[in-house]
Amino acid sequence: MDRTQFDRLFDMSGRTVIVTGGTRGIGLALAEGYVLAGAHVVVASRKPDACAWAAQHLRDLGGQAIGVPTHLGDVDDLAALVERTVAVFGGIDVLVNNAANPLAQPLGHITVDALTKSFEVNLRGPVMLVQEALPHLKASPHASILNMVSVGAFIFAPMLSIYASMKAALMSFTRSMAAELVGDGIRVNALAPGPVDTDMMRKNPREAIDGMVGDTLLGRLANADEMVGAALLLTSNAGSYMTGQVIMVDGGGTPR
Q: Choosing from 163, 174, 227, 243, which is the catalytic residue?
């Protein structure tokens, strides 16, 4: 390896990245990381005001960015997101499926409505968005898909069976996508965060948060920025020989 190759390992210059759920929490941190690595970034979330704010924030960091209001549960919105991205930046190189619905109901009280909403956003949305973006990913020499799953897909998840099961299914799709799309030069991987200090996490009872922290070796919540390095590894030249993999960024909790 020479200096030029080394300097390009995490360089995303000129690449276009879509980050769903990109206006706060882990999604915003990832969007910031991609902009700072040189990418053109498209942030998508349900709220137009949040999209506009996030896009301006990313431009203030020195990047090129737009926000596209998108509901992952609305299939028509997914087509519009892809069309807008291509119209502005000319293609798609990386798709980050980060948006999620954290609906939680205990067994015995799960409603059809809750199960349906979780399926639409946490599984159907990411899969159908990949399909919408596929022609443009196939045309990219640097194509990569990153599905954000969760350590909940690997561990006992009382009260969280809806969310955990959808993330487990998305992990399965990740492996199947990797095998099916390798011939098109598209790498597909997943990142499984442990407990991260986000708005979603703070909505949990204090005792639940303390329990999650106690299950990690590092004994603390992650900062959303701590997800950026793994995401860049999986979607940049640095991870060029990685596909069909899941990286756990969990503070050493999952194997326990």
A: 163
Q: Determine the Cα–Cα distance for residues 81 and 126; give it in Å rounded to an integer.
A: 12
Residue-wise pLDDT tens digits, 66-86 = 999 999 999 999 999 999 999
**Strand residue runs (E) in 73-227:** 94-97, 144-148, 187-193
Q: What is d(CA 228, CA 31) in angstroms, rounded to the nearest whole number?
A: 9
* The pLDDT value given to residue 186: 98
pLDDT band at 225 (very low <50, low <70, confident <90, very high): very high
Instruction: Kindly list the strands in the beta sheet with 94-97, ordered across the sheet, starting from the edge strand earlier in the chain.
Output: 64-69, 40-45, 16-20, 94-97, 144-148, 187-193, 246-249
Residue 68 main-chain phi, psi, to 5 deg: -130, 110
Catalytic annotation present for 241: no
Read off the tokens for 75.
């299939």
